[in-house]
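From the shared-data thread, chain only:
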Amino acid sequence: MNEQKKNKVLRVAGLALVLTLITTCLLAHTLAKYTTSVSGTDTARVAKWGWSATTTTDIFQTSYENSSSKLTVETNASDKIVAPGTSGEVTITPTGTSEVATKLTYTVSETNASGIPIIYEYDGKYYTSSTRYTADGSTQYQMILANDGTTKTALALQNGGLTALQTALTAASTTIAPNATVASTDSKTIKWYWAYEVYDAAGELITATDISDTTLGSGGTATVKLNVGLTATQVD
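Structure, as tokens:
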């Protein structure tokens, strides 16, 4: 190779090197960009659901005693019992707090196929499923002799049966705000009575009730079941 060709090759090689460096610089500038990154991280726990409920006493008992009326009733087994002149009550109380809004709903139901003449009292009004107190299909005002043996209590039984009692309890449903404490009025009490003696509106003793009461007690197998419930539900 003569000197002239050698110089020409060197010039071509040098030019190729310069072009390569220029291209590399251009590519470097082409790939360079502004960049900003943002991310978010957080942690959460499940909102607290802290509701429960208590009842202050059993609805029915295994024995009843009242010294003033000389009334004494006691089972000879472990069964809970009712009899003319007995009475009792149940109080259901919501407790706790919740971090979500909550609706408290109260329910009541009765199973009483034998027609035991139980009268229920709620919020100063009286209810019963017994046909004894509504036999004439109209409003009756009758008197029962309370189990203290001396006090006659006027009953305005036009308040209706167990459906009406449930309607009254449904109307008492309430919504509790998150983290709020339940009020004392959110505790509900239902009392029950089996009239020891029943009087008509004129104050005359209705002796016919003794016959039906005796019939119910003769077999000792008639039963009444009362279920009082409280449901706490998160508000939608």
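Confidence is low (pLDDT under 50) at residues 135-139.
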